[in-house]
Amino acid sequence: ETGVTQTPRHLVMGMTNKKSLKCEQHLGHNAMYWYKQSAKKPLELMFVYSLEERVENNSVPSRFSPECPNSSHLFLHLHTLQPEDSALYLCASSLTLGQGYEQYFGPGTRLTVT
Amino acid sequence: AQSVTQLDSQVPVFEEAPVELRCNYSSSVSVYLFWYVQYPNQGLQLLLKYLSGSTLVKGINGFEAEFNKSQTSFHLRKPSVHISDTAEYFCAVSPYAGGTSYGKLTFGQGTILTVHP
């Protein structure tokens, strides 16, 4: 596979469940990102990792827990979510964390919290 | 901090007509500028970017954009659209702060372009 892949593509979970989203990039990039895309709102940056080190946590609730075991993989662990957390979660990567570098996006995971 | 305003939430247009999607930004520092496109059920794909040099930037699929520093705008244009251009388009900015500081992307709310036959 090439580019940035995300699994699962769709996820329905109850408020008491625990699940994880997975992202994998095959581009040899050193930086990875999680975004939340809700209807009628701009993309919200959630987390940024550079060389497996978290660079930014953009005031995200603790029910979202990221993990970056290596520069190719990024996870988002979910627990006790709320209905307002239903959204499209996008993963992205870039060559480095510097300015002006293009971010490559995965297709996203459509999350529905019931 | 930066902010991005896309002036139209929806733009309907007929096939082969020209289109302009408007983007204005606000920033206290110089910025890099980007346009991304999102087709249904897909992630975002880069259309074009302005880093420096000529203010007219050409991208993929026949799109171009012009950076206007005095008006803090970066409008996207295409002279003749196709049905396949139907998608949501996002303008984004990243601060230029020099050195190796982090270039965080700030996105606009998106413009849905619908091309009718």
User: What is the N-to-C succession of helices and strands of chain A?
Assistant: EEEEEEEEEEE
The percent of residues in helical segments of chain A reads under 10%
What is the count of helical runs of chain A?
Answer: 0
Catalogue the unreliable spans of chain A.
none
Number of helices of chain B: 0
Number of extended strands of chain A: 11
| Rg of Cα set of chain B | 14 Å
Classify the beta-strand content of chain A into a percent band: over 45%
Shape of chain A: globular
Order of helices and strands of chain B: EEEEEEEEEEEE
Can you offer a commentary on this structure?
The complex is a heterodimer of chains A (114) and B (117). Chain A is mainly β and 114 residues long. Chain A has strands spanning 4-7, 10-13, 18-25, 31-37, 44-50, 53-57, 64-70, 73-79, 87-94, 104-105, 109-113. In chain A, the strands form two sheets. In chain A, strands 2, 4, 5, 6, 9, 10 and 11 form a seven-stranded mixed β-sheet that branches. Chain A starts with a strand and ends with a strand. In chain B, 0% of the residues lie in helices and 53% in strands. In chain B, strands 2, 5, 6, 10, 11 and 12 form a six-stranded mixed β-sheet that branches. A four-stranded antiparallel β-sheet of chain B has the order 3-9-8-7, with no helix packed on it. The chains are: A mainly beta (114), B mainly beta (117).
